[in-house]
Amino acid sequence: MKKLIIFLFFLYAFTGLTAQNRVLIESKEAIISQAVAELDSAMQAPEGALYLFGQKEKIKGEYTLQLTIRDKGDVVSVFVADKKNADIPSQNKLKDRVLQFRFSFKMPKNKDYKFSYVFKF
Asked: Sheet of 74-84: strands edge to edge?
C-alpha cells in the first residue's frame, strides 16, 4: 500500500510538471496563427470550450473582437470591433469569457500581440 501511495505521488508530480511546459513561440506570425488555430478549435462543435460556453449562455450573433495576448498566453484585453445580430449582455459575457482564455504557448516576455478574431454563434 505504501509503495502504491509513493507511486501515485510521483505520477501526480510528474504529470503536473509536464503540463506546465509550454512551447515558446517567438515569431509574430507564428504566434497569431497558433492563437487563431486554438480559438478555431475552441469554437468547434461539439466539444470546443467556447462553443459549449455559447450554447450554455445562449449567445447569438457574430462578434469581431480585437484581442491582446502577452507572456504565457494570457488574454490581457478584449475590444469589440464589430458585431452583427448581437446584444450587449451576450457581448459582455463573451468578452469576460475570452479574457479568461489561456493559450497553450509562451511568447517573448514584455511583448504584446494584437489580432482580430471573428466569433460566430
From this structure: 74-84, 62-70, 112-120
